[in-house]
Automatic annotation (TrEMBL), chain A:
Name under which the protein is recorded: Thiosulfate oxidation carrier complex protein SoxZ
Domain of life of the native organism: Bacteria
Boundaries of every Sulphur oxidation protein SoxZ domain copy: 10-103
Pfam families: SoxZ
InterPro entries (alphabetical): Ig-like_fold (IPR013783), Ig_E-set (IPR014756), SoxZ (IPR030995), SoxZ_dom (IPR014880)
Length: 109, 139
């Protein structure tokens, strides 16, 4: 497991029914591309997050496939349409098999 | 060795060819990836917006945004990177609008390409050149 992986997600706490909201996510991760070399000229092996998904009440919002060309600390901004109160489930899948998860509640006014 | 004017010209030409070689190689890899994504269909234009800075000082983190109303999925490619693939966005039923932004690495000045698959099965493409001052691939 990569060290100090911390997901951060920004979601509004409340929303009017049917409204479209903007979600911002960021996770601290080195995203080692597999292109860099260490001081002795050895290639540093690739170690990235290769998939990110966001679901709301079991329904998919966005599913992103990441390649090594995504910057360190992968950041995503996207939008979702919300018609009911519920829970966002954010999931990041690491190359090494680790899965990082974060949940956010949202209430419809 | 006696260098005639013709020899000099030929050598210069040879140098230019060698210098130009890597670009078509990268471009071919990008074309392959696009063909794989579209299943060989030639993507059209319009209906997709790719927003990227004209000049990126740091190739390690270049903010980009794609907007393709009605898209099912969008693939981002960087033609001048060692591997052209950058990211694939698949939009689910709850996606509010088909907009996504992220930050990417660029090895050098190059074209960033976005291809979107529309709900009706057609494909559209947009590209923008980004000038990179410091490449983002590390040593």
């Amino acid at each position: 497991m990569a060290e100090n992986v911390r997901p951060r997600v920004r979601v509004p706490a409340t929303v009017a029914a049917g409204e479209t909201i903007t979600i911002k996510t960021l996770i601290s991760h080195n995203m080692e591309s597999g292109q860099r070399k260490d001081g002795d000229g050895n290639v540093i092996p690739r170690s990235i997050i290769n998939r990110f998904t966001c679901d709301f009440n079991g329904q998919n919002v966005i599913d992103v496939t990441l390649e090594p060309a995504i910057s360190r600390n992968p950041f995503f901004e996207f939008q979702a349409t919300i018609s009911e109160s519920g829970t966002f489930q954010f999931t990041w899948y690491d190359d090494d098999g680790s899965v990082y998860e974060e949940q956010k509640e949202i209430a419809v006014e | 060795m006696n260098l005639t004017r013709r020899d000099t010209l030929l050598m210069a030409l040879g140098g230019a060819v060698v210098a130009a070689l890597p670009m078509p190689v990268f471009a071919a890899a990008t074309e392959d990836q696009i063909a794989e994504f579209t299943g060989g269909v030639e993507p059209g234009t319009g209906g997709i917006t790719l927003t990227a800075p004209e000049i990126a000082e740091n190739g390690n983190t270049v903010p980009i945004e794609v907007d393709a109303p009605g898209a099912v999925s969008i693939i981002i490619l960087a033609a001048g990177n060692p591997n052209p693939g950058v990211a694939t966005f698949n939009f689910g039923p709850l996606a509010g609008s088909h907009v996504a932004s992220t930050r990417i690495r660029l090895a050098g000045t190059q074209d960033v390409v976005a291809v979107a698959k529309m709900a009706d099965g057609s494909f559209v493409q947009a590209s923008q050149e980004v000038k990179v001052t410091i490449g983002g691939c590390g040593g």
